[in-house]
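Give me structure tokens for this 356-residue protein.
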Amino acid sequence: MWISSIKINYFRNYKQEEIKLEDNINVFFGENAQGKTNIIEAIFLGSMGKSFRAKKDSEMIHLDFEQAEIEIQYQKLDREGKIKIQLGNKKNIFLNGIKIKKLSELLGNINIVMFNPDDIMLLKGGPQNRRKFLDIMISQLKPNYMYTENLYLKTLEQRNNYLRQIREEKKDENLLDIWDEKLADYAVKIFQYRNEYIEKIKERIKKIHAEITNEKEEIEIEYISECKTKEEYLKLLKERRKLDIIKGFTTKGIHRDDFSIQINQKKIDLYGSQGQHRTAILSLKLSELNIVKEEIGENPILLLDDFMSELDEKRIKSFLEKIQDTQVIITCTEKIKVENKKILIYNVKDGNVKKQ
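Here you go.
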């Protein structure tokens, strides 16, 4: 799988730009705040239907305009495709010229694995970072996952609203049983998806990490959840009901799940060095790359945003050596050289892209 071209109209700091890409390595270099990450964001938007950094679609529209548009031409083993996304008063998504009705129709057409500097916080930061990592990976492979998760979140919001009504308006708390039942149904489905993919990561990450660290480190990953069965979660909701009413929100659920990583039997978030965090992230991303390839039968597209700033030369070399027949899109502040690889280099300055 690879992207052959991207058209960007009035997106972020770009006015009108068309970029042709190589099926191997593509490097976009330039100073900070010139628009390099905006290219990565446009590809992510074409894959997932939303941004990885903007909370509102309006944030992605050029300041001087009311609408933005991206168009991506891509090729897979069995077909070619075109995705167009229009941003304005509402978002319109077209797949091969046909407007789609559901986001799930977009997911899985362009499969990506992304690395950016914020990923260093994946293991150091809060559980929401790790849930987001799983959500992005699974959504591309199982479009129904995002649909189920949205139903869970909608039900969670309704339950939280009713919890506050019980507290403030003395409404009948027995009616919570309705939301508890629905919430538990969705939670267990989400747990099953996530647990399945954590198990897939487990199968791969040990070997990958051992190779990267020359057998010096052993890595373990564990999924942490209290929603493994419907009965277990319903019991927990009952036990926490009085506390949930006092607080006005649901204190336990799949929205609080997490996974932990240990290096040599020590939790990396507590005891890991900066170098160990970086290596563990590499192992995690390579595991993700491996899983996506196995699921779809071809390599996904690898997006490396400001990748070089967080890794030393040894880790960069180790990472790139493990990538074969993969389209890679790299943003960085300096030109880079990659041995034995076809490479296309662009300079980005003030929202203009020039081939070198």
